[in-house]
Design goal:
single chain, 198 residues, alpha+beta, 8 strands, 19% helix, 54% strand
Amino acid sequence: MTKLTTMTLVVMLTGCGAAQVGGGKQGAAAALAAAAKPTKAGADRSVTPILLPEVNYTCPEGGSATMSNFDSQQQVSGSGAKVVQRFTLTYKGCGLAKSEAGVAIYEGSFTVEQNLESSGTGATVNQRFAGRVTITGALNDFLEADVTQSLAASALGSESASMKLVGTLKNSSGSYTYDEELSVSGGIPVAKESVKQN
């Protein structure tokens, strides 16, 4: 009877979003990588003939995200080009990643400053995230960012990516400072003790 009661409690807590993002510094980076997925649509906008005032993104696990309030500049020099654009990224019940506990749903908004540079050897993206969002659904956490993410343009929106982070990220487990290369793959890790603490 005791075993059954304990199992039922765990299921109930997990279903109510009791879990928190785990993995420390790496886990916070994974949560940011998931949050950055919609920015591919913003980058795609910058190379279209008509610059739309608003771009919508359908989240892979339900919900949506919107990029709006664009402020863009384009620069061309030699064999390369550079686009600098600033926009507001707003999440609306946006399911962006899975975890052991279930789908991570993002709510809230970031201000994003996105720099896209192209050359004969390819294209890179540097994008700064500022603000705070909540992560709900199967999780009960937040992500506060003042950080710049650098990666290959081809990696935008993908599940797995190598990137460089410079700046800080905060969530319920702590505050993390970055100036390093990281690789993320798959979903968001869950703190093993988060269910026990609730």
